[in-house]
Design goal:
Chain lengths: ~240, ~325
């Protein structure tokens, strides 16, 4: 069974919120209906989003580092939100591991949002049903789109390619290799939810230039530019022998 | 967590109804083995059962205010295999039905004696219904409490004490109501109920204090470090990604000051346990219905405060992601 997931490279994310707006745009225009915004241009605007980009400061001034942290549903392998649902509206798809809400069955009791330690579920205050990231399930299988566009809207929008999409159960998939080789990790591992989405840690990329590299000792150019050797007094071997 | 008043009223009202039914059933069991004088079926058991049923219906109505889509509520009975909420949705009407049948049979005095022991103890049909009702009542207490206790990352709730407290506090309020009711319609049983109420209140105080003690020493398993996966001792959130608030900022935090929270703790400890205990004691001695009813009313107000505090105290790990605008 495959498990589709996102891998988010925190080293690359610049916190531009393009994934947030692209997600909102795609999903508010989707077949599942709009995503409510209340007072969008007034005091106290509020609304439903599937994806948020947060910002954290790590360390103490002046030695700080800013980390932008996109957070959406992690599509846990053992999702705590699914078994608590009294109606069966929340479910995890067997074929690709996407955790979804059936908006026609949801009674809006909010219990699943209590059961999610990541705060990934947001109720739609107007439609009164629970909403969450669908991994753009209405897009990734759409054969009318070119194959390169059959990816979640957030992945396509990311200008720095900080978001990767694929199957984490396939050990040879790009994202599995990335997780393996770049130290991909899960959020809140203490609860055993086994999130499918992984994050790649921030890495310091320093450029080390050694003095040798500035002035190469064995630069062949130096050899070529060496002038002819000075004339000598004594006869050379060439003068006394003839071949 | 943000204390939702629909859930506060649901849990406290059905608690009273359940406790009231348990009190009636206890009284009938005692009189069946001739430890207490037999009561008039219609006046005491049938009327008492109807009072219990009114509280249960009140709780059911309150629960609908919690739903976004109440017209689909019937669907909530489908996932009983995995969801405690679904189990509660099934057990609540069963329990209400049994209380209704119990009251109805007492009202019409359909009380065939199935079996009489040599000692004079009698097994009536209503007692059999009562046993089923009692089992359903305890099942309902367990379902209601497990809705909260099964959420392992809400560490304040994830404890057997949650279940014990729901059982004891619900039963205590029902027994207190039964004491006031008995003073009117079955004065022989009043002191029996008053003493049991005081015993259950004392037991409830001990277990609730135990849970307060436990919760005050909880070490949160989730930290900002595990939440974002960065191993640094000093991490501070600078932005949650939006400025206007969302469900995440509204539903998971009580938005009260620490002082208010602390005040609520003392208020509920006084109103749920101490004051009703004293009022029950003085009402038992003076046989004053007014005092006994005051004990119930004060305790119910105390239970609303208790439930508010129960929700407010639970610290959801998702709040780690929503610390600053």
């Amino acid at each position: 069974m495959s498990q589709l997931a996102l891998v988010i490279d925190l080293n690359v994310c610049v916190g531009c919120h393009a994934c947030v707006t692209s997600c909102k745009e795609w999903n508010t225009s989707g077949p599942a209906g709009f995503m409510t915004d209340e007072n969008p241009y007034d005091k106290d605007p509020t609304g439903t989003f599937f994806n948020r980009v947060q910002t954290y400061e790590i360390g103490e001034f002046p030695n700080t580092e800013t980390m932008h942290f996109p957070k959406s549903c992690l599509h846990c392998e053992d999702p705590p939100c699914v078994p608590v649902c009294p109606t069966g509206a929340s479910y995890k798809r067997k074929e690709d591991g996407i955790v979804l809400v059936d908006y026609d069955k949801c009674i809006g009791c909010r219990y699943c949002s209590w059961a999610c330690p990541y705060g990934a579920r947001e109720i739609d205050e107007e439609q009164k049903v629970m909403k969450k990231c669908t991994l753009c399930v209405d897009r990734i299988y759409d054969e009318s789109l070119p194959e390169t566009e059959r990816k979640p809207a957030c992945v396509l929008a990311c200008p720095t390619s900080a978001r990767l999409f694929g199957d984490v159960h396939d050990p040879e998939s790009d994202i599995s290799v990335t997780i393996r080789e770049e130290g991909g990790y899960q959020l809140m591992p203490e609860w055993g939810t086994q999130p499918a989405n992984h994050y790649l840690p921030r890495r310091k990329t320093h450029m080390h230039i050694h003095e040798d590299e500035l002035q190469r000792a064995d630069n062949p150019l130096n050899k070529e530019q060496r002038g002819p050797s000075a004339p000598v007094e004594e006869p050379t071997l060439d003068d006394s022998t003839s071949w | 967590m943000h204390p939702a008043f629909s859930v506060i009223f649901l849990t406290t009202l059905i608690g009273v109804g359940q406790g009231m039914f348990l009190a009636l059933f206890t009284g009938q069991s005692y009189s069946a083995v001739e430890l207490l004088p037999t009561q008039n079926s219609a006046d005491f058991y049938a009327t008492g059962g109807m009072i219990a049923l009114l509280f249960l219906i009140g709780g059911l109505i309150a629960s609908f205010f919690h739903l976004g889509r109440p017209e689909r509520a019937w669907r909530a009975a489908t996932q009983w295999r995995t969801s405690w909420l679904s189990r509660e949705v099934i057990v609540l009407p069963i329990m209400m039905g049994l209380v209704f049948i119990y009251s109805l049979m007492h009202w019409f005095e359909w009380d065939t004696i199935l079996f009489t022991a040599k000692t004079g103890a009698r097994l009536q049909v209503t007692l059999v219904i009562g046993v089923l009702g009692m089992l359903a009542t305890f099942a309902l207490f367990i379902c209601t409490a497990m809705i909260y206790a099964c959420l392992k990352f809400l560490q304040e709730w994830h404890s057997p004490l949650t279940v014990i407290n729901y059982i004891l506090l619900g039963t205590a309020s029902g027994f207190t109501l039964a004491t006031a009711f008995a003073n009117v319609s079955a004065p022989d049983l009043m002191s029996f109920y008053a003493i049991w109420s005081m015993i259950i209140i004392a037991a409830g105080l001990i277990t609730r204090m135990a849970s307060l003690f436990r919760n005050s020493r909880i070490k949160a398993k989730s930290t900002i470090q595990t939440a974002i996966g960065v191993r640094h001792t000093k991490i501070e959130q600078k932005a949650m990604g939006f400025m206007g608030g969302s469900v995440n900022t509204r539903d998971f935090f009580h938005h009260a000051t620490a002082r208010f929270l602390k005040a609520m703790k003392w208020i509920f400890l006084l109103l749920t346990f101490v004051v009703p205990f004293i009022l029950l004691w003085s009402g038992m001695n003076s046989q004053s219905t007014g005092t006994l009813l005051a004990a119930f009313v004060v305790q119910y107000v105390g239970l609303i405060a208790e439930r508010w505090f129960f929700f407010a105290q639970a610290n959801h790990p998702q709040n780690l992601y929503y610390q600053t605008i």
